[in-house]
Write a structure and sequence with these properties.
Elements (H helix, E strand, L loop, with lengths): L14 E4 L5 E3 H13 L21 E3 L1 H10 L2
Antiparallel strand pairs: 1-2, 1-3
Organism: Pipra filicauda (Wire-tailed manakin)
Keywords: Metal-binding, Nucleus, Transferase, Ubl conjugation pathway, Zinc, Zinc-finger
InterPro entries: Nse2(Mms21) (IPR026846), Ubox_domain (IPR003613), Znf_MIZ (IPR004181), Znf_RING/FYVE/PHD (IPR013083)
């Protein structure tokens, strides 16, 4: 299982899963990208290499509690 965020390249602490394409990111990193692109009225493409989803929205993101539990247990 991959615990590394495709945006920050660091281990995720608060992973969120995209309901549309299924990819997972660090919540703070993807929300920051969504907000900055929204101000410029631009769509956000999924940052996972090879993914064709090109309109990531805040409403598409859900906390990935299962992955968070696994990460937390690995770090104990």
């Amino acid at each position: 299982m991959n615990f590394i965020c495709p945006i920050t390249q660091m281990e995720m602490r608060r992973p969120v899963r995209n309901k549309v394409c299924g990819h997972t990111y660090e919540e703070e990193a993807i929300v920051e990208i969504i907000q900055s692109r929204k101000q410029r009225k631009k769509k956000v493409r999924c940052p996972k290499m090879g993914c064709s989803h090109d309109d990531v929205k805040r409403s598409d993101l859900v906390p990935d509690e299962a992955l968070k539990r696994v990460i937390d247990s690995q770090n104990k």
